[in-house]
Design a protein that fits this description.
Elements: H1 13-16, E1 31-40, H2 46-56, H3 70-74, E2 78-83, E3 88-94, H4 104-111, E4 121-130, H5 133-136, H6 146-153, E5 160-164, H7 173-185, E6 190-192, H8 205-223, E7 228-232, H9 238-250, E8 258-263, H10 264-267, H11 269-278, E9 283-287, H12 292-295, E10 301-303, H13 305-315, E11 319-321, H14 334-345, E12 348-350, E13 355-357, H15 366-374, H16 379-383, E14 394-398, H17 406-413, E15 419-421, H18 424-427, H19 433-449, H20 453-457, H21 461-471
Parallel strand pairs: 4-10, 5-6, 5-15, 6-7, 7-8, 8-9, 9-11, 11-14, 14-15
Antiparallel strand pairs: 1-3, 1-4, 2-3, 12-13
Bound molecules: 2-carboxyarabinitol-1,5-diphosphate and magnesium ion (MG).
Domain Ribulose bisphosphate carboxylase large subunit C-terminal: 148-362, 372-470
GO molecular function, one term: magnesium ion binding
Pfam family, one: RuBisCO_large_N
Length: 484
Amino acid sequence: MNPAAKLLKSLNSKQRAYVNLDLKAPKNGEYMLVVFHLIPGEKLNILQAASEVAAESSTGTNFKVSTETAFSRELNALVYNVDLKRNLIWVAYPWRIFDRGGNVQNILTFVVGNVLGMKEISALKMLDVWFPTEMLEHYDGPSYTLDDMRKYLGVYGRPILGTIIKPKIGLTAAEYAEVCYDFWSGGGDFVKNDEPQANQDFCDYEKMVKFVKKAMDKAVKETGHKKVHSFNVSASDFDEMIRRCELIRKTGFEKGSYAYLIDGITAGWMAVQTLRRKYPNVFLHFHRAAHGAFTRPENPIGFSVLVLSKFAKLAGASGIHTGTAGVGKMKGSPDEDITAAKNILHLISKGHFFEQSWAQVPQNDEQVLKIAKEDYANHVILNDDSWRGMKKCCPIISGGLNPTKLKSFIDIMGEVDFITTMGAGVHAHPRGTYYGAKALIQACEAYNKGINIRAYAKSHKELAEAINFFENRKETKALSNERS
Ligand code: CAP
Ligand code: MG
């Protein structure tokens, strides 16, 4: 028997309606499942606090109300397991309580809304969430993916190598585009606006877009390689966000050469889903600025990087920043960041507590798979996995990285299917952005050839300078303008 069962007697009648430690088959497809770390507040025991969380995050409030009905009680979230030693609770949410039409914002308002502010808890952090196959088909999931970007760029077998233009803000539109050109001509694939870049008076948005196009055209012509720019379209309201998207689209960027970046937490989930639905053929880049308030390991109240990343995938992000597992400048760990990265990348992957299958056709549904196999008329279905499951969501690895750290991260990640963006790691190179890009490319070449970067640096000057600077903090001679 569940050791928490002895606490059942301590529940009042309202609380009892939100607990079922004998719930049969929580994975029967009816429920979205959640694990919280919970420390009770207000002298409650963990089961009392857990039932209050289940109530407030589904149908209830702090007292049993006379207006509830037999049907409304069917919609109660249910605490179905408790780990007294680790202060963990498992809650099953009948997912029919959520707004129809694939609305992610609504789910979050339920499960990490009021409950984070309740007096009945002193710690409440959502550590993992599990979506049943039956629920997945109601949510968009990613449309334009890293695979599409790879095809456009012709880049395989290595990470997409990117930068963020620095200083974070303060360059004019022309200066901004110059730095883009330097990075792309140095061999980089992908440039992003920084998360606060918008339409500041010293860097007019329209001019920035136009100059970036010129810089991209020049770099593509000179290098013979396609390039991508991720434009921050976060704005004061949806009309302005769409205006920026349309402006980019109408400046002549070909499909695949631009992405839309959204500050998903400060701009909000409606903005994320609006972009996913209006522009399914554009890479949707979810920047997670402000996520630390919820996800930092030392924060007792909030949710994990894994939970944020899974909801971003459900909402249709093509990629989301998942952290550098502590290799870079931000707080993080392999357990947090790599778990999140792998979980959104693969069709089936382990989380902290659940194994998530993003398949929409249950793997054992032979009948459907047989029909699909025989469905020659629509062979395209078999080539496009989206009918079978949610497409991959790309981990975007950024924050304090530089060429000397690339291998350390890849070794922890164990694979190269991600985008990495390095800001200072490129623009702080002693000889500037162009050489910083070259050093990044060389570090990746060294990795792919299985050569230690110090050995590789013996015949690659830009990498040697990067190692000197970033590892030994040895400033080399003043910036030289001539390009070797
Ligand atoms: C990185 C960055 C990114 C962070 C976000 C910055 O710049 O542009 O926004 O990576 O963190 O502004 O810090 P640097 P995360 O490369 O110069 O650090 O990816 O963890 O969400
Ligand atoms: Mg940034």
